[in-house]
Amino acid sequence: MKRLLSGNEAVALGAWEAGVRYASAYPGTPATEVLENLAQYAGVTAEWATNEKVALDAVVGASFAGARALAAMKHVGVNVAADSLMTLSYTGVGAGLVLVSADDPGAFSSQNEQDNRHYARFAKIPCLEPADSQEAKDFTALAFALSEQFDTPVLLRTTTRISHSKSVVEVAMPSADQARAARPAQPFPRQPQKYVMIPANARRRHPVVEERLQKLVVYAESTSLNRIEWRDRGIGIITGSIAYQYAREVFPQASILKLGLSYPLPPQLIQEFAASVERLVVIEELEPFFEEQVRALGLPVIGKEFFPLTGELTVGIVREAAAKALLTPVTPVAPSAPPTATTPAVMLGPSATLDLPARPPALCPGCPHRSVFYLLRKHKLLVSGDIGCYAIGVLPPFTAMDALISMGASIGMAHGMERARVGEKLVAVIGDSTFFHAGLPALANVVYNQGTTATLILDNYTTGMTGGQDNPGTGKTLQGEKTTRLDIEQIVRAMGVEDVWMVDAFDVPAVEQAIAAAVEVPRPAVVIVRGSCVLLAEYRPQPSVTVEAARCNGCTLCFRVGCPAILKSEERDAKTKRPKALINPLLCVGCDVCLQVCPWKAIYRVIAD
Amino acid sequence: MLKIDFLLAGVGGQGVLTASDIVAEVGMAVGYAAKKSEVHGFSQRGGVVESHVRWGEQVFAPLAARGEVDVLLAFEMLEAVRWLEYLKPGGIVVVNRQRIAPTTVTSGDAVYPPEDEIAAALRRVTDNVTFVDGLALAESLGNPRLANTVLLGALSRHLDVAPEVWLSVIEQRVPSKYRDLNVKAFWAGRDGG
Fold it and tell me: Hey, which residues 107-136 in chain B have their CB within 8 Å of chain A?
């Protein structure tokens, strides 16, 4: 039976068919969809972890204890888990262990474009790269077998494009024999020389890692993961992952060495391929990972001098680069940067353009983050930011964020800013899920070192940015079942923060007073701003609000809350000549933030008859 | 080799991704190798959503190339123009006559182009432009969320695929209690688009 599956859905299916018993992840591509799909399969325990290191550690434990296990995380999540990953390479596994991670060429929703194939080389573990959903399913299953065959964790690397594209997958009809019985309890295989990495054991395991890598190179020479497609031998292309698809489209006649095992590489296979083609080309997204290794074999190759290292490749970009490299006949090609939400104008033939308004992302109408960023802007505070929807706070009309680098970094950075004695009042802003992810140790650091950072924890009862996943603060599991809710207020008090404010995100004066007080106290302070994300199923909109045009004088204050429901009216105030406000009742959910911000009492709630 | 490339574009929340799933599955149902691609994430917060669907005997890249898209299905007028560069000259444009002002417009920093300028821009690339009152037709059926099914109905007129194939895919995709309404919405788009 054929089904149209995304790369992520296919990974989940492949893992399940391979008998995965435990999966853990922190949300983000690919983890969100892989885990949400795995959670639906019988016989798999799937969990949200507080962060990627915790996820990988739990998966390591499950693997050591004999259960096939899978961890999934964003490319940057592997940075968090890297401490464990590097030594996991030494211990090897028990049952098969697969780490699924998606790079984000183009940085569609990430803070960088790092190439995680480097992690495979760094940790000396195999890296598999599927080029479509069928391969995503097949390679995942194979990754578990490889993990056990070579006693190694396996990195399955996708990209955002592979994870989110759908293509046809051959699916066996789910049958009864695939529904797994619960695994009977088994004793832990006690092998401290293998699993306890004290220095003496680590020294003994390091040569094992090197021997394993040599065996993997031998495997790489013959595995069906790598294949040569012989066509015309004038051009030979080494490629893999999504770049393979672009190469096929741009060079339909060229011979291709497709590398499904992108680490370690097969030197003999590459040499043989190179010897049989006139010109050797490497086409790969992001880093010259294949290219540098091919050059190290002494082979002349056309690569990153034409095919860009930054951004996502497209057929257009590959075609353009191929023409520049004189690999294809030069034909006029359109410039290839795809239009984005911020593309200012579109060329319409040689002469005409039409100015297109940009459509940047915005906080949703009713978003609980709106009042906070309106106030941070109003009081011109220095804002140390974090990863989440609230990063939109850096965009107009708020422009109220001054630093953002990684999950949980807001609190640590704010502490350093304070220690550097910036002469400004400052706050750290962090979401609930991000606080549990990496904010806890950073807040402990502030308290321990007697810093005065004011931390605003924006608790919207969900992991909003990734589509609304549960976390330890929500009281619900991945499967939506009730569990212990960790109380953020109790936690910060237990950490020794004495100055704690709990405020309703939609009570603007209360939020304002709490922030004003928190930045003044000469001690660590925390303001917990609570309000539900509007994307939650439980969210109930209130009746919309409206503008009484006669009272509105176009003061523009309500425009500064950056709400998509608030429009500039065509009617202008007679005195100020400025446009009055208008509210779109279809978008307004009655959060009342604009109503509280209006100094002229021109906004009021519509009560239905 | 036969191929049809689609680009579906709109604004977060309009049902672009569901509609593109349906287009891809219709392609599969009539025997094409289908691929579709979009990126989820920030774009859903009121931003631009675009999804590529490709039908063909063999499909490699999940994204269609600029200037080669056969069919542009726009859920919003501004987005029709934003993605116009992907359309091949003379390609098919089906555009929902709906304006969703971005925050740059509502804040007064930019101007939403008038409909006649949008229509003129589209017609500079192709004569094959159809405006559909998707939202109005959906509201007349009692639910504005049916607009994407109305648009699929309007799109279906331009393709050599039996309406029954579309309907069977749509019926599988929507909750059973909305099945009849979606069938009506499809026909409203196909007959009136």
Answer: 107-113, 117-118, 121, 124-125
User: pLDDT 10s digit of each residue in chain B, 193 long?
Assistant: 589 999 999 998 889 999 999 999 999 999 999 999 987 666 566 788 999 999 999 999 999 999 999 999 999 999 999 999 999 999 999 999 999 888 888 777 888 999 999 999 999 999 999 999 999 999 999 988 899 999 999 999 999 999 999 999 999 999 999 999 999 999 999 997 5
Q: Are residues A213 and A312 in the same domain?
A: no
What confidence tens digit (pLDDT) does each residue in B75-89 have?
A: 999 999 999 999 999
For residue B120, give every residue at least 6 positions away whose Cβ sits within 8 Å of its Cβ, in sequence order, or none.
none
Is A42 in the same domain as A73?
A: yes
Do residues A296 and A403 share a domain? no
CB burial of A378-413 (b: ≥16 within 10 Å; e: otherwise) equals: eeebbbbbbbbbbbbbbbebbebbbbbbbbbbbbbb
Residue A609 has pLDDT above 60, yes or no: no
Mean pLDDT on A238-245: 98
B3-96+124-131+161-173 classified as CATH 3.30.428.10: no
CATH code, A418:
3.40.50.970
Pair (A388, A468) in one structural domain? yes
Does B30 lie at the interface with A, CB-CB under 8 angstroms?
no
If one counts the domains in chain A, the total is: 4
Do A454 and A600 fall into the same domain?
Answer: no
The answer to whether the Cβ–Cβ distance between A166 and B63 falls below 8 Å is no
pLDDT at A196 over 70: yes
Provide, as residue numbers in chain B, all residues whose Cβ is less than 8 Å from the Cβ of A36: none
CB contacts, 8 Å: A109 with chain B: 39-42
- Lateral strand order in the sheet of A279-283: A226-229, A254-259, A232-239, A279-283
| A38 shares its domain with A115 | yes
Instruction: Tell me which residue range forms the domain holding A294.
Output: 226-324
Listed residues A168, A202, A221: the one ending a domain: A221
- Nearest-CB residue to A562 (from B24, B103, B121): B103
Nearest by CB to A166, from B24, B40, B83: name it. Answer: B24
Q: What is the CATH number of the domain that holds A317?
A: 3.40.50.920
Contacts of A566 in chain B (CB under 8 A): 106
Sequence-separated (6 or more) residues with CB below 8 Å from residue A530:
A368, A459, A461, A502, A503, A504, A505
| Phi, psi (degrees; rounded to nearest 5) at A538 | -80, -10
Chain B environment of A164 (Cβ under 8 Å): 37-40
Contacts of A196 (CB under 8 A, 6+ apart): none
Report the predicted TM-score, pTM, of the whole model to 2 decimal places.
Answer: 0.94
Residue at A585 is within a domain:
yes
One domain, residues A519 and A391: yes
A419 HSE (CA, 13 A, CB side): 11
Contacts of B128 (CB under 8 A, 6+ apart): B90, B91, B92, B93, B158
Percent of chain A at pLDDT > 90 equals: 87
Sort out which chain A residues have CB atoms less than 8 A from B45's CB and list them. 361-364, 389, 392
Nearest Cα residue in chain B from A363:
B45
Whether residue A215 is found in the same domain as residue A230: no
Q: Which of A197, A221, A245 is the last residue of a domain?
A: A221
Give the closest-approach CA distance of B53 to chain A in angstroms: 9
- Residues A71-81: tens digit of each pLDDT: 999 999 999 99
